[in-house]
Design a protein that fits this description.
This protein is of the alpha+beta class and 257 residues long. The protein contains five helices and twelve strands.
Length: 257
């Protein structure tokens, strides 16, 4: 695979099978694996999604990849990297297929209103500082049939485009986009340079959404993101609420998107 990055994907680690690429990356981080290491598997036996959910990953049918980063930044900036990866993955899909994937904040890509990609960011702290961050990316490539419980909510590049890119081609495109975006992010210290393009791809922008938190539900109009990657929602009364990622679910008022 030809990888046009300076530091990301150096080293590149591949396995035919692992439990979860995120868990693999975290184990290797504990052994001293460097900033920029990437872990890719053909098959995950225990793929993980956000909020403790499992991630379905039939053998060889999708991209299952995790990035290990050791950023020198305040811990509160770490969630911005999920937003950055969402944009990078959407850009990579466009680069490879010529098709637009929209972003469902904070961590999914969608096509035809169905989930194409999921992102899971996990952070480890040491002495009040970030020890490492692992960002997992799962993109459905060749699946044509999904389990009954998700078949109305999931799609793949093969279903959307008629054919799917090779796994290594898709992986390289994601890494190249993320490395370039990450460097701009470090320079800016926030997501301001990316707000306009992110908002352009944000599936819910200008639409009514329901925000479900532990203690409350909020219905309002999605306005976009701020420079920290938080979602801006205007309530019916005209107030603008800032929604933090985490234990929050954001859905369209009448469906997944």
């Amino acid at each position: 695979m030809e990888l046009k990055t300076v530091w990301l994907g150096k080293p590149w680690n591949f396995a035919e099978e692992t439990d979860s690429t995120n868990d693999w990356a975290k184990r290797e981080a504990g052994k001293g694996a460097p900033h920029g290491a990437v872990f890719l598997a053909r098959n995950q036996t225990k793929g993980k999604g956000r909020r403790g959910r499992s991630w379905a990953d039939p053998k060889g049918s999708g991209l299952a990849m995790s990035l290990l980063l050791r950023p020198d930044m305040p811990p509160e900036r770490a969630p911005m990297m999920t937003v950055l990866m969402g944009l990078s993955a959407a850009q990579a899909v466009a680069d490879v297929t010529g098709r637009t994937a929209q972003i469902k904040w904070p961590n999914d890509l969608v096509m035809s209103g169905k989930k194409l990609c999921g992102i899971l960011t996990e952070m480890s702290m040491e002495g009040g500082k970030i020890s490492h961050v692992v960002i997992g990316v799962g993109i459905n490539l060749t699946e044509e049939k999904f389990p009954e419980e998700i078949k109305d909510k999931a799609t793949s590049l093969k279903l959307e485009c008629g054919r799917a890119p090779e796994t290594d081609v898709m992986a390289a495109a994601v890494l190249e986009r993320f490395e370039a975006n990450y460097e701009r992010f470090l320079e800016a210290g926030n997501l301001r340079p990316f707000q306009k393009e992110y908002d352009r791809l944000l599936a819910s922008r200008g639409r009514e959404v329901k925000v479900m938190e532990k203690e409350r539900e909020l219905v309002g109009t999605c306005l976009g993101i701020d420079e920290a990657g938080e979602l801006l929602v205007q309530t019916p009364g005209g107030a603008c609420e800032t929604i933090f990622a985490g234990e929050v679910s954001v859905r369209g008022l009448y469906g997944y998107v």
